Structures are given as structure tokens and as C-alpha cells.
Amino acid sequence: MKSLKDLEAIRDRAKQEMSLRETENKTRIIVGMATCGIAAGARPIMAAFNQELELRGLHSASVSITGCVGVCRYEPMCDVIDPNGDRTTYINLDAGKVRRIVAEHIVNRRPVTAFTIGAAER
Amino acid sequence: MISRTHVLVCGGTGCAASKSTEIMAQFEKHFLAKGIEKEAKVVKTGCFGLCEKGPIVVIYPEGATYANVKPEDVKEIVEEHLLKGRIVKRLLLGDTEAQDVARSLENVGFFSRQLRIALRNCGVINPEVIDEYIARDGYAALGKVLTKMKPQDVIAEMKKSGLRGRGGGGFPTGMKWEFAAVQKADRKYVCCNADEGDPGAFMDRSVLEGDPHSIIEAMAIAGYAIGANQGYVYVRAEYPIAVQRLRLAMDQARGYGLLGKNIFETGFDFELEIRLGAGAFVCGEETALMTSIEGHRGEPRPRPPFPAVKGLWQKPTILNNVETFANVPVIINKGADWFASIGTEKSKGTKVFAVGGKINNTGLVEIPMGTPLREVIYDIGGGIPNGKAFKAVQTGGPSGGCIPAAHIDVPIEYDTLIALGSMMGSGGMIVMDEDNCMVDIARFFLEFTVDESCGKCPPCRIGTKRMLEILERITQGKGELSDLEKLETLANSIKQSALCGLGQTAPNPVLSTLRYFRDEYLAHVVDKKCPAGVCKAMMTYSIVEDKCKGCGICAKRCPVDAISGVVKLPYRIDQGKCIKCGVCMDSCKFAAITFK
Ligand SMILES: Cc1cc2nc3c(=O)[nH]c(=O)nc-3n(C[C@H](O)[C@H](O)[C@H](O)COP(=O)(O)O)c2cc1C
Ligand code: SF4
Ligand code: SF4
Ligand code: FES
To answer: What interface predicted TM-score (ipTM) does this complex get?
Structure first.
């Protein structure tokens, strides 16, 4: 290591990995992953979220899983919880939807209403 | 792929002793079995400060904190939490009432009132991975100091921050550095005191184990500030994990060029060495510590000359405590004004305490200076177990004194504690309830100092021994009223004439208990009673006549035939023969025997 720049490079690389351990000011993406969810393809959805976040170098969101949500017909689904506690439930997910949710909801803070449970129930 | 889950397992001394290494191995094994080894990662951390409830496991991103985890529990955690997203409630830290939200560290009362500066990385990073320290702005302060600040700027910043020594004395750190900086010498030294002799204190160990790089970085900063190129860390040999992690951290820092020659290409060189102490309490005293580093017997020498003028090998030297150093990089990064905004007028920043004794949540807590004692005992410490009454708290270890319940609202800072006849010390805090005998407590601490006296000067070698003999007499019920005066006279003359801090402060626990609990001393010497029921010699087994049915069982069981009587009439114990074994009390089915 020769300069402060080198130090900063190491810091930025390591920070990405460490950001998972911060719980403040984060958007949480929670994918339903009980038996029904896994059967409905939740695992690839989770991987898609992870991949999308990593691609964009987003530290402000984390992906975790939860058990059965009780509305199996909408699986695979996920909840996005904003730092202020607002919860949006997205349903019938696929890779394309995941990309749009990350781009619009996580990056631009605008929920994608068309994919929500509210839109389906209407 | 970035892991989606980090499983932090405490690798501190406390948790390592309760199988945390095996727990880590179990996690790795179950990750493989379930095919999630790429998504989840085990991170070994330093102490969370909750050793009593260890081993501790924290799972992110949820921040769920599991306590008392056993290797057998790992399978359930992996299957439930990691695979199904269901928190294993029975293992959660704190009251485990049904709760859907994951309890994160920040939500637990024990942590929510703490402010972690010195312990900022403990339980957060893997201390064996330098990149994790760097991710949390590690070595940025050293970089800033070397490239953007002059040594005198660093000292000015330290002075402005108001940081005072955390090792006991509370001397302003910036001033100490300045004394050494202005000396002209061909060599100067920076030393770190990790001797941690106060029984019950373990914050220095936790910092070294959980965040060793912060000490390396701070010592290099100090070296730059005073013009030293060599540092020594004096650690007690009883801290093997701390020593091993520090060694590893030093190797990694050297590998990155953060120790050694020409750091950040600024021409500044700094090297570090570890010296192991054999664990004598007196070796924590600054002059004794330096004598010991030089390879001689660790005995104190008179001051002046002060170490800043003539220290290690007669060269200007500064010595700071581990916790003091741990604050330094943060002060440089965030600025003196930020640091000085925390705490009180004369005590800035935070202090780490090792809270133990009669309290529900024992462990390490870091609180802003000026936090009322009540908050530490009740809000963070969770109060006294078994509904007992809080009696006093001992701070400053064997050199300190006690603060009685009447002063529970005192804000904790250097000067208020001294005004109460105690002191901050290194941060041991032992909580006592109604069942503790204060005379016995004083005897306990004095016994410690008598054992640890190096014997170089008579007031400490002989004087403290005499005091201990008097205290032993009192606890055995053989004390006299005049003993109290004798204790005070001896105490005051030892304080004035002993050579080093050990002797000068040794009488403090006695003086302070005499000041606040004189009635307990009087009960011992006048009434020959121990009100708390601790001093066995003064207590007797006796039979309550109304309750005794005259069955005679106790008389048969008594190994020395001290009990006699006529069947169906109350029995009696001959106090002259009784050896206080307690067999009779256990054998009586009618609870007719008391011990008071
Ligand atoms: C008997 C005795 C034991 C001491 N033990 C320690 C110790 O274990 N750790 C420590 O940091 N300071 C200890 N000190 C205080 C040191 O002498 C010294 O004041 C301190 O390390 C300076 O660092 P600081 O200014 O950062 O607190 C002890 C002092 C005495 C008199
Ligand atoms: S005061 Fe006690 S420990 Fe200190 S030099 Fe004298 S004998 Fe040794
Ligand atoms: S065992 Fe109890 S009841 Fe029986 S003689 Fe002894 S004190 Fe009395
Ligand atoms: S050693 Fe694990 S919490 Fe202290």
C-alpha cells in the first residue's frame, strides 16, 4: 500500500461486503421462502435480487427470507420494507419484475404499483 | 456472489471457553449440508460484552441476537432461521416472549443506552481480517495524520478533544503527548498498557481481541505526534487470544505497509513489539511497567523524572492504556469537536465498564461520561437479582472505593467519583446487594493489595499487612472500637508515604467503607454481629424453642455432640462445642434452627 487512494480502494471493496451488518437506514427485501414459496421458485428470485443489488453496487438494501405468508397462490412473493417502515408486497415475481423493482423501488424510491398485491386484489 | 447472510460468532475469551469454535465449525458443516455455503458466511468476531450469556451468535441482515448457543442448536438455527426465515425464539437474547420482530442488538435494553466508541468494532468485525477494519474507516486516521497534519496539529487535536487516560489516573492524553513531543532526544518510545490488573476488569482484553488494529493505528499516530518510531505493547501473558490476534494484526499491517518503513510513502517509520507481563498487579504501574520492558524486575521507581522526560531506557516515553488508544483514531477521523460534544464538561467521551457482581446483566458496557449510576444499574444492568436491595457499587477496583445507594443518582465522571471517595479506575464496577458485608469487601480488596505489594517500600509492605490483620480480627468478631481509629491512622500515613500508586491507593476501599458503612463496622466490633450474615465467625446456630418439636434428630446428626435435650422438649446447642457445620439445620424437618 502506497497511498491513501490504495487504502480507499480496499475500504470500498470491503465495505460492500460489510454493509450487510448495518441495520440502520436500510431497505429490506424479504422473500417468502417456506415450502410453498420454494416450490413456486422463490430461490431463483432471491438469487435474482442478490445479483441485481450486487450488479448495481447497492449497499442500501438487504435480502432476507421469511416463512409461509399464507397466500400461497401469489407465490413467489416478497415484501419490501422501506427505512421508514412502509411495507410493499410484490407478488407473482419473475426475473424481469425483480429488475424493475430494484430499479424503481430501491433506487428511485417509487414502488411499482402494478406488481403489488393491491393491484391483483382489485 | 455476496453472501446474503452473515453469521457472527463471538470468538472472545468468554465465548471461546464455552465452545464457540465448535459452533463455528457446526455452522460451516450445516451450510455445506444444505448447499447454502455460498449464500451464508461465518464471521468470527471479538467480544460483544455479554460473556455471561455466551456464546453469542448474531445473524444479519436481521440482526437477530442469540444467546447461550450450544453446538447442538446450530442445526435448528440453520434450518429454521437461514432456510425458512423463522427466528428461533427460544434462543433469542433477553426476554423471549413471543415477538415477531427480530430482536436486534440495538433494541436490547443492554445496548440501546450504550454509545460505542472504544468498542465500536467489537462484535462487528472479524478481528483477524484487516480489510474488515479498513472497511470501518480503519487506518484512515493514520493516513490523514501522516499526509495532512503536522505532529503539533495532532497534539492540538488531542488536547482539544479533552480525552483523558482510561487506565486509572485520568491524565489528559494530549498534554502527556505534548510533554514527550517537546523533549529533544535521539529516540523516543510509545507504550501501551495492556496489563489490566484490576480483578474483574476485562475491557482491554476485549479491545485487543475484538479490534487489535485500532491499537496499532493509534500507537502509530502517537508515534508520529511525539516523534517516536518504536512502540511496545505490554500485555499480560494470561491473555493468549489477545496476544495471538495482536500478533496476526501486526503481521497484516506490515504486509500492507501500515507498519514498518516509509508508511504511506511519507518517510515516517513505525515498528511495534509485544512484551509479555507475568501478571503482577504492580507491573501495570507506569515506572514498573517500563522497568519490566527493559528486562528487569517490575518494581516502581520514584518520580520525577516522569516517563515523558526519562522513560524507557532513559528516553522520553509515553504510556497509554488500551482503551485510551482505542479512542484516538475516531477522534482524528470525526474531529475533536465531535468527541468533546460527548460527555460532561471535565470528562469527555465515553467509558467502558465491566459490570459484575449482584446484577442481572453482567458484561461490558460503554456509556457516555456523565451517565447517572442509576441508569447503569437499572436500565442497562437490569437491576439486582432476586428482588434484593441495592447496597453499593465498588468502582476503581482495589484502588477505588464504594458508592452507596444514597448516591445512586451521581453522574459517572472522573471528578464526581473522586469527590465521593472512589475513582473511575480502569472501569471495574462490582455491584453489591444487602447480602454483602462491607467489612468483608474491604478485607477482600486489601488482601489483594497485600498479596500484590512488591515490597520495595515499608509503608506498603508492612502497613497494609497491619491493616489487613486488624480487618481479619474484626471479621472474626475479635475487633475493638479502637481498631477503627487505628485503621484510619494507618491508612492515612500509608497514603502519604508509599512510593507508588499501589500503596498510595491500597487503603481506599477501607476508608470508603468506613465513611459510608461505619454502622456495619460498629456492629462488628461492639455488638459482635455481622448484619449481612457474611462473617461466619460471628454467627451462631440456635434452636427456636417455639418451633422445636423435640424430635432429637439434630442431636443424633451433630458430629461433635453439641446438641442435647430431653425428647419432646426444646433442644439446645452448646455454642462452646458447635463447629458451625450446619448439619443440624439441614436435618431439622421443622425449620426450627436458625443461623444468624
Ligand atoms: C498499581 C497500579 C496498577 C496499575 N495498573 C494499570 C493497568 O493494569 N492498566 C493501565 O492501563 N493502567 C494501570 N495503571 C495506571 C498506569 O500507571 C498509567 O497511569 C496508565 O497506564 C497511563 O495510561 P492512561 O493515561 O492512558 O490512562 C496502574 C497504576 C498503578 C499504580
Ligand atoms: S507502594 Fe507497595 S507496590 Fe508500590 S513500591 Fe511501595 S511496596 Fe512496592
Ligand atoms: S431436629 Fe429440629 S425439631 Fe428436632 S430437636 Fe432438633 S431443632 Fe428440635
Ligand atoms: S467473549 Fe463472547 S460476549 Fe464476551
So the answer is: 0.79
